Amino acid sequence: MPQYQLPVLYVAANSEEFQRLQHFFAGSQVQLVANPSPQQLENSEEKVLLLLSDNFLKDHLAMQALSSLMLETERILPIILNGRQKDVNGQIIETPTQTKTIHELMRYRDFWHEEWIRLRKANREAAADELEEIEAKKLFAKRLSTNIGSFLRKINALSPSPWADFEASEFSRLLQAIDITALQKSEEKETEEEQAEIEEAPEIEVESRAEEEILEAESPEETPLEEKEAEEEQAENSVEEIEEEEKTAEEKEPMEAVEEEKVEEIPTVLEKEEEKEVATEKVVLEDENLEAAQEYLTEVRSLDALFVIAETETEEADYEVARLAYERILVLDPSNGRALIWLARLLDRHFEEEEQQLAQEYYKKAIFVNEESAALYYEYALHLRKRFASLFRVNELLHRALEIDPQYELAYLALADCQAKQGQIEAARANYLQACLLNPELQAEELDQLYKVIRPEEQKPLAEELQLPESEEEILRSPHAEEVVFITGATSGIGRATAWQFARAGYRLVLTGRRAACLEELSEQLRENFEQLEVQTLSFDVRNKEEIDAALAKLPESWSNIDILINNAGLAKGRGPIHEGKIEDWETMIDTNLKGLLYLSRAISPIMVQNKKGFIINIGSIAGKEAYSDGNVYCATKAALDMLTKGMRLDLHRYGVRVAAIHPGHVETEFALVRFDGDEEKAKIYDDFTPLRAEDVAETIFFVASRPERVNIQDLLLFANQQASAAVIDRSGKKFE
């Protein structure tokens, strides 16, 4: 009797619903195939019944199967079911499955992000025979944390039916989908044994094994260099191909974003109270006058209609009207990621130079909405490189892209280009070779010459020539992986931000401070975000030489060659005229700001002299350049630091050791709270202007430290825009938030 095989995807928690389906179709021409493998799904063309529940969306193997269908969504017939879980008393309770609003989508994204973190921790403690399985699951969870919003928006576009309605209609939607006008059943009821013969695979369990390549087929791709656009439009897994296949869906199906290769779909934060059907016919404005167009667009409230207008006008090269449409979307939904990125691209590609600063702002906002998109960081980096030639910022963005997606070959290639222009040939060569390993087609003779890559006349396969290591960690090893950075005062403020800055670049870190718990917390956060990062923490007070010596003695021998010392620990205590000053405050500042720096420099500089290389960076203050009233002793300690830096430079330059001082103005950290002994009212000194942030100073420290060895930036003064000197500040309000 069976003439039609119907694949059904579900999880064990929803076995009850599957059994009802079995009972309904028993003895008919429809044979249910429970939970076929992703390979079986890819090799068939049948419709697939998806029983989607909260349990399903949190299940590794179930989501693998679903991901294999994301290029063929027209095959999916989605049904929404309640999930089931046990309460504290062991009773089964039902959990609604909600996937409409951004908050509901983010709940599942958060689940998979937390699962990724859990698996990373498990990977460190796993037995050797478990590593492969855990690594596969970890990779899947990381990719799914980025793509699950895209998955669910595609499912929502298929108008899923609630289970109750689906069952009440005697599954009529399913019968229509598989083109069966009448269900035919045999005259005699099947026995239980016959029913058991219905082909059924084991139900999906929550801890099923993941397969590494599942998501790769539909990971959205990033917009590449413009010269490669034509080639990359043919990429098998690009989002343009997905859209071409989706055009066969019903006419009223909401339009999907037209995304370029390697750019993930970016979620919108506008919550719609009701789902409204929007026709997807192209809307073309009849009046090309901009004022008329703007007047028309102000009356349009449908985001889907506005996207159609924007895309249509872009295709017809009417970029001003397209811009108005995107801007209208952002009036209705200021955090719409799709509109932000496409408006940034529109301004970048089709508008004059005066609009490029605005394009930059839209790139920033798009990244803020979807901060886990490697593609956006890469594209923003290319924009800055092309328009503003800001190599330092470009490097930072490309490193961030590679943190998110370590297999992003174009980011490695772009990073190599920037490093070559900065004179960092060894680092550039390493990143160029990594790009070639990931994509041998990127290898070019002129690039080999640029990066001084010597290849044998009879070219061996690149992986064989470089003896490609098996582990991912070795392949992606940072060019700074052997360099040790020693940061004092790393528990908060500038020191903490500096630790993050150097961690992104792959340095080994020695983090020090008085608060051991804060150091451990920072260390754990860094390890969770940077899988290969090596960190040591040392808790001591820089005022105590014995504590310093004891802490340094604890460092493993492999950490003893410190390459960069950042003397950041410092503070201000109290404020008042000299005749009212507290001796204990003076001693605290002198011991911390000056003697602490001396103790550390004396202990570490001999290592640098012996190695004939190294860098000592002292964090000073504008107070060391200009005295201000009631700041007497603090200003004196920072002035001493300034002079000490110059003396150290004179002493150490002959040994190849660089020395620098960075003098920031006002920076919003714990500085003021410490100065006024925790008095929050007195510490409110930043309320009427925009000071520097700790990250601004950390970026400057990294910039100074990352110059080629022939360069020594010895003295650098850093101010917020609203501060002109130590005492001259525009306090008319926060202008640059």
Distance between the termini: 70 Å
CATH superfamily of the largest domain: NAD(P)-binding Rossmann-like Domain
Radius of gyration: 31 Å
Task: Characterize the overall form.
Answer: elongated
The percentage helix is: 40-55%
Largest sheet: 7 strands, parallel
SS-derived structural category: alpha/beta
Q: How many structural domains does the protein architecture include?
A: 3
Q: What is the β-strand count?
A: 16
CATH class of the largest domain: Alpha Beta
Strand content: 5-15%
Tally of contiguous helical segments: 29
Spatial sequence of strands, sheet with the most strands: 10-9-8-11-12-13-16
Low-confidence stretches: 187-288, 458-476
CATH architecture title of the largest domain: 3-Layer(aba) Sandwich
CATH topology heading of the largest domain: Rossmann fold
Integer average pLDDT: 78
Describe the structure.
Residues 117-144 form a coiled coil. Belongs to the short-chain dehydrogenases/reductases (SDR) family. This protein has three domains: 4-195, Rossmann fold, CATH 3.40.50; 291-475, Tetratricopeptide repeat domain (Serine Threonine Protein Phosphatase 5, Tetratricopeptide repeat, Alpha Horseshoe); 484-718, Rossmann fold (3-Layer(aba) Sandwich). The protein is 46% helix and 10% strand. The protein contains 29 helices and 16 strands. Helix 15 runs antiparallel to helix 16, helix 18 packs antiparallel against helix 19 (425-438) and helix 23 packs across helix 29 (694-705). The chain is elongated, with a radius of gyration of 31 Å.
